[in-house]
Amino acid sequence: MFCFQCEQTAKGEGCTKIGVCGKQPDVAALQDLLNYVVKGLSRVAVEGRKVGINDQEVNRFTSKAIFSTLTNVDFDPERFVELINEAVEKRDTLKEKVQAAGGQIDFGEGPLTFKPEPTSEALVAQGEKVGIQSDPDINPDILSLRELLIYGIRGMAAYADHAAILGQEDDGVYAFMQEGMAATLNADLSVDDYIGLVMKCGEVNLKAMELLDAANTGTYGHPVPTPVPLGARAGKAILVSGHDLKDLEGILKQTEGKGINVYTHGEMLPCHGYPELKKYSHFYGHYGSAWQNQAKEFDAFPGAILMTTNCIQKPRGSYQDRIFTTGLVGWPGVNHIADKDFSPVIEKALEMPGFTEDQDGKQVMVGFARNAVLGVADQVIEAVKNKAIRHFFLVGGCDGAKPGRDYYTKFVEQVPDDCVVLTLACGKFRFFDKDLGDIGGIPRLLDVGQCNDAYSAIKIATALADAFECGVNDLPLSMILSWYEQKACAILLTLLYLGIKDIRLGPSLPAFVSANVLNVLVDKFNIMPINTPEEDLQAILG
After folding, report:
1. How far apart are CA 149 and CA 377, in angstroms?
2. CA-to-CA distance for 177 and 183, rounded, in angstroms?
3. pTM beyond 0.90, yes or no
4. For position 125, what pLDDT does the model report?
5. Of the CATH numbers 1.20.120.680, 3.40.50.300, 3.40.440.10, 3.40.50.2030, which one belongs to the domain with range 374-541?
6. Per DSSP, what are the bridge partners of residue 443?
């Protein structure tokens, strides 16, 4: 195997024996094969659009299949066998439709004609031939940009899938996913061609994030500032982790009146701010911290656990019988809820002891999405004008376990008292429970939401720029970002598409970005690695 798509990749170069994430070589090969087949399916879909064939089922499948290969989503080899065979079936059916409409379907060999072997073992062998390193003669800059494009599309697919679940879709998003995946089959594309596609990925991802924002707020209301207890309430308990709001709603509905308290974990924390979710009286509080700490935290949780979307790790034997997956998430041997009937989760929670007594703990504030922040925009603007607020820092992104991520804790701790910290995504768990006080009633720590809520942060920045009649780059705003997986790549591409400069990125730079590609990003956008908190604050504030 070879995989270097996440920040924690082995030695900062690539995982070759087993994934740092826990991905086994057979799963890596099957993911590579699915990626390969989806490229072929996408090529047919692109041709289909030219002759009026636009298959919505194919579009949705493309998004789901791409999302399934994102880091820490699915580790179940049998699920990938099913997806590979379904992709081939959909490709061949679509080819027939395109041919009947007069379209071109003779694309030569490769993923357009690939035939899957009948056994898992043989499919793994096929996958081993089409991985990242399958073409040793490829230009390293082309390889770098090709993988950056694919990883950006994976992040986009995650947002698109979340949005589609709540009824928000846009054909332009699906069309670009397929255009981008198909483009990676074109050996004639230049570095400049790929740079254009990468920037377009950032543009289209902005639309995908907008769709997801509309889906979440249209279904559950705009988040409002809400205190969330970090303790526990005596009683039976279910813990919901991942990112999916609809799955959380399903748990809340199905547990009403059953004497079960529902807690969030990881990126589900911001869900407490949505009016249509917080109305459930048994939706109590938040337990634990970021995804990489789940083994210890899940082990200690005295109830059932539901993992939605991504960020699952190998379960410990101590809780494997009480953790459940749903949606695209999978782990071999873990019970999967495919039909959204969460009765097995509820039954397990009722079997477990739950919390035997109340546990006091801190409270944290959530719900500072764009409507909440812009609702006090006049106060914010006035505070900036009278110099009560000197600077804004957006400190957030994906968290991880690799050493060096304490930088973000130390950075926030050292931010001067006349500055405000906006945060989002699981990177916030490095400092989410710190009391930074306020400036004239405006909290100094504002939780914008999940990584899925990056659109809100962008809208806040652009609204402030409009209010001050300047560009975003002219605002007293600095972005200090951490990254781990491919949604972070997609968000970064969107920020670059918007022309945002001087982003500090850490804890390390991507292994898949070549020296020449990095130089382009540095020259055009002044992207820079983080240094020490002291050095970076001095450079920003003087």
Report:
1. 36
2. 10
3. yes
4. 98
5. 3.40.50.2030
6. 438
